[in-house]
Amino acid sequence: MELNDKTKGIIRGVSHVTAGFTMVVAVLMILSFVQLKTINPVDNPVLQSIKDEYDKDPNNAGKAEQVRVLDLMARKAYFSSQWQIDTGSYLLLAGAIIFIVCQRLLAGTEKPLPKQPGAKADLATERVMGRKTLLSAGSVIFITAITGSLLFRSGFPDVSGAESDNSRNVNRRIPKDALKPDKTNYPFFRGHNGSGVGGGTGYPDSWNGENGTNIKWKTAIPKTGKSSPVIWGDKIFITGAEDPAYELYCIDKKNGNILWTALASGIEGQPAELPDMDHDAGLAVSSVATDGKSVCAIFANGNLVCTDFDGKIKWAKNLGAPENAYGYSSSLVIYEEILLVQYDDNNKVSLMGFNTSSGDMLYETIREGRPVWSSPVLAFFDGTPQVIINGNPFVSAYDPFTGTPLWKVECLTGDVGPSVAVNSTMVYAVTDYAKLAAIKPGIGSSIVWEDNTFTPDVSSPVANDEFLFLATGSGDVACYNAAKGDTMWTHYFEDQFYASPILCDDKVYLVDRSGVTHIVRAKGELEIIGHSPLGERSDCTPAFSDREIFIRGKDNLYCISGN
């Protein structure tokens, strides 16, 4: 390949700059790595000293908060250092590749002249030999870069809270039941993984709360709230609040009796004045999360509590009163004993991870964008557990163990209230006055199809691998082809929907604001099975367990059973 002198000069300049840049990056990486090895922010003696003091006085709330804050700062510093070295390794590789390519281009432009016996090597031959030497040096740099990247990354200790790399790998294995809804346990808002899909079969499709038809029991909830019921075994968990009283209730699934009440008031840091919020929604909008060992609840004043199954408080803290346009409404999710809290206010939007046993904050990831009122959803794509948040403007996914961002797609605008829907291959995000978007998740994530005809403002969509169902605040219900985005059918039900549709037993259950549940067949043609009145208004999403349906109305919790 023939190159003119000007082009050769440019390539030669790029080669020299790249070589120098690569060497500088390599030196800085080595210095950073040595510094991290000698002064590990996670092994800070000040932090260790305060931890030792706290161990001697575990009831000292001030020391506990100091440990939490310093530990969080140390972890942020550590992961910042890790990011710097990771980024440096990529720059090192890129620099080495560019250097070698430049040398190859230059080496291919000049060939040595035949050497006469007894004559000195001419200038062209010397240049070729010199470039061969440089190319060899570049190859050494390239190999060093690859080796360095591996060594630098493997040199990091595990600060995720797991006991070892092996135990961490075990934790990251997807549980065998991760993708299949349980017929008994309905542990989060919208059930299994927060997906809106219920487990089991044989659920009733006809009842009447006014005359008692198929109503097994109903129980008055002491305090008002719009949190939806969650279930584990024979226990139902729900919240209520009327300032200054914040309460978590455990209800017997068999008869509706309130087994215990846990108080979530008087927590250190609890604000004296309530934050601005939608008073129609109230202080107890967020649904509880449970994993069979812990029960966690959060309220609109920032109070976060965790109890055992007997109602004993394991830990409690105030996260700060979220200030935003409508108040706090995000529900909780637990994965592998990590409580996931989506915390949004006007000052920051974040995802927090807490240890359910101790209440220690494991991480806080600051998210991009404006505050939203959706809830986190667990999903599993390419064998990886992910926490997916419907945000503004990004729909984004995070590692539940570390809070590390995995992927994001710029998608929505406005006041985002609905959570995402997921199936085995896609994520579906929507909000009113914006659009509905089907997203291919993971590396290279992108919008596959979109539509703006039907857009809920509060209610979240639900999907399986064939269809996507959604209900709007104007009373429309729509069914889409999940893969292509074609509208399969629509129907106007006259009343608004705030509760999210639940897909269960090959049916879709849709509770409107008047308390009537409309039941349709989960297929591509409209088939209305029936309409069942609760007898009071409801904005809450139903729970499904062992052939019984549980719906919270304005004043009462209902158990609906066809048995």
CATH topology of the largest domain: Methylamine Dehydrogenase, Chain H
- Our count of domains comes out at 2
- CATH-level-4 superfamily name of the largest domain: YVTN repeat-like/Quinoprotein amine dehydrogenase
Largest sheet, strands/sense/barrel: 4 strands, antiparallel
- Which CATH architecture of the largest domain? 7 Propeller
Using the coordinates above, name the CATH class of the largest domain. Mainly Beta
Radius of gyration computed on alpha carbons: 29 Å
Can you lay out the helices and strands and say which pair or pack?
Blueprint (H helix, E strand, L loop, with lengths): L4 H34 L6 H12 L4 H47 L15 H32 L10 H8 L42 E6 L9 E3 L2 E8 L2 E8 L5 E6 L25 E2 L4 E4 L4 E5 L5 E6 L14 E3 L2 E7 L4 E7 L5 E6 L10 E5 L2 E7 L3 E5 L6 E6 L10 E2 L4 E4 L5 E5 L5 E6 L10 E2 L3 E5 L4 E6 L5 E6 L9 E3 L2 E5 L4 E6 L6 E6 L9 E3 L2 E5 L3 E6 L2
Antiparallel strand pairs: 1-32, 2-3, 3-4, 4-5, 6-7, 7-8, 8-9, 10-11, 11-12, 12-13, 14-15, 15-16, 16-17, 18-19, 19-20, 20-21, 22-23, 23-24, 24-25, 26-27, 27-28, 28-29, 30-31, 31-32
Helix pairs in contact: 1-3, 1-4, 2-3, 3-4
Structure overview:
It contains five helices and 32 strands. The protein has helices at about 5-40, 45-55, 60-105, 125-155, 165-170, and strands spanning about 215-220, 230, 235-240, 245-250, 260-265, 290, 295-300, 305, 315-320, 335, 340-345, 350-355, 360-365, 375-380, 385-390, 395-400, 405-410, 420, 425-430, 435-440, 445-450, 460-465, 465-470, 475-480, 485-490, 500-505, 505-510, 515-520, 530-535, 545, 550, 555-560. It is globular, with a radius of gyration of 29 Å. Strand 3 (about 235-240) and strand 4 (about 245-250) form a beta hairpin. Helix 1 packs parallel to helix 4 (about 125-155) and helix 3 (about 60-105) packs antiparallel against helix 4 (about 125-155). The strands form eight sheets. A four-stranded antiparallel β-sheet has the order 1-32-31-30, with no helix packed on it. The protein has a four-stranded antiparallel β-sheet with strand order 2-3-4-5, with no helix packed on it.
